[in-house]
Amino acid sequence: MANISNHWHQRLSVLALFISLVIISWLAFTPKTDLVLPSIGDKFKHFAAFGYLAYLLDSSFPSVRFGLAKILALLGYGVFIELVQSFLPNRSASGLDVLADMGGIIGYWLFIPLWQRLPIINWRWQLQTQKM
Questions:
Q1: Is Zinc-finger among this UniProt entry's keywords (predicted)?
Q2: Where exactly are the structural domains of the chain?
């Protein structure tokens, strides 16, 4: 029964990851009507979004530990967003945004021992230990 539940958790994670990537891309690629100055709030949004994406990516592929491949995939997506934004009206590429993205990814990684103790999301690591 647990395997069926874990299977559905994984499938829902894949769906949530896809939907989140579509929404985040749409928000990132929509040209702004006014020039918006960067703020701390913007960096927090990058941090939170990439921490969330790190969890979803990790949960979508639980048989692969959260390592360099997943980190580089997320970081590549963040750099891609900034490159596209450099060509959009009233948008610009920002190295600080990429650093905030990295912060969210690393934040997720550092807190994995805590996440493993939370009943609502610890299924992800239970599945990994079952496959070993």
A1: no
A2: 2-30+40-131
* Element (DSSP H or E) covering residue 122: none
Q: What is the DSSP letter of 26?
A: H
Residue 124: how many CB atoms within 10 A of its CB? Answer: 21
Return the residue matching tokens 């490159």. 83
Q: Which residues contact 55 (CB under 8 A, 6 or more apart)?
A: 108, 115, 121
Most confident of 1-10, 34-43, 101-110: 101-110
Q: Confidence band (pLDDT; 50, 70, 90) for 1?
A: very low
Q: DSSP secondary-structure letter at 44?
A: H
Query: Among residues 12, 9, 39, which one has the least CA distance to residue 123?
Result: 9
Q: Where are the alpha helices (DSSP H) in 30-89?
A: 40-60, 68-85
Tell me the Cα Rg of the chain.
16
Helix (H, G, I), strand (E, B) or coil at 86: coil
